[in-house]
Amino acid sequence: MAELNTKGGKKAAPTTDMTAMCDVAFLLLTFFILTATAKAPEVLPVDTPQSTVQTKLPTDNLATITIGKGKVFFDIKGKEVRKRTLEMMGEKYGLEYSDDDTSEFALMESFGVPIQNLKQIIDMKSADRAKAGQPGIPKDSLDNQLKEWLLNARRANIEINDKELEIAIKGDAKEEYKSIKQVMDILQDQKINNFSLVTGLRAQ
Asked: Comparing C-alpha atoms, which of 135, 133, 197 is closest to residue 166?
């Protein structure tokens, strides 16, 4: 509230009580701190190519293949789809996962280890997974686990969401073309001809 001091016949400059505004500012700050979700560090950070296209990827029904430093990582959107995919992969490779394992896997970000070592990654804390030095998912002709992850993720998504899974490739701008082509060949083998390429936004 503005106040005037008329003592001595001189008018003082009006003042404003800022207490209420400071209270509101601190309340808003507290609200945003308590409700914000910290972004988990990327397990395989890549420097994507630049583009002027601004089309956003869907927030569900999506699998992302990240390629960088000669490694391939895989991520699936949707907790139930992730759980079902892990169950199918366990059946394929003769591995068993507990309910706690599948629940934790459903909350994970992308991963890049052979299926035989996935349990070790699941048991780690989120911050430790980024430091674990994951070697990437095998994708060669003798042990093409990336193909199996894609196949089972697509089946799980149709089973749960009754939709075809969309695929996105997030490749490092400096990655060798043969690594990208190898992943594209795996997609082609499963008749996946439509997929997205993740890029960074280039200033125009």
From this structure: 197
Query: What phi-psi label fits residue 8: left (phi over 0), alpha (psi between -120 and 50 degrees) or beta?
Result: left
Whether 65 and 169 have beta carbons less than 8 Å apart is answered as yes
Count of Cβ atoms closer than 10 Å to residue 147 Cβ: 19
Distance CA 186, CA 192 (A): 9
Q: How far apart are CA 97 and CA 93, in angstroms?
A: 12
- Phi/psi for 15 (5° steps) reads -120, 155
Six-digit token string for 180: 């990208």
Q: Are 179 and 70 in contact (CB under 8 A)?
A: yes
Among residues of the chain, what percentage have pLDDT more than 90? 49
Residue among 56, 112, 110, 102 nearest 81 (CA): 102
CA distance 135 to 111: 10
Q: Give the SS3 label for residue 41.
A: coil
Integer CA distances (angstroms), 154 to 61, 67, 127, 177, 180, in order: 9, 20, 29, 25, 20
Instruction: List, for residues 91-143, the tens digit of each pLDDT value.
Output: 999 999 999 999 999 999 899 999 999 999 999 988 888 888 899 999 998 99
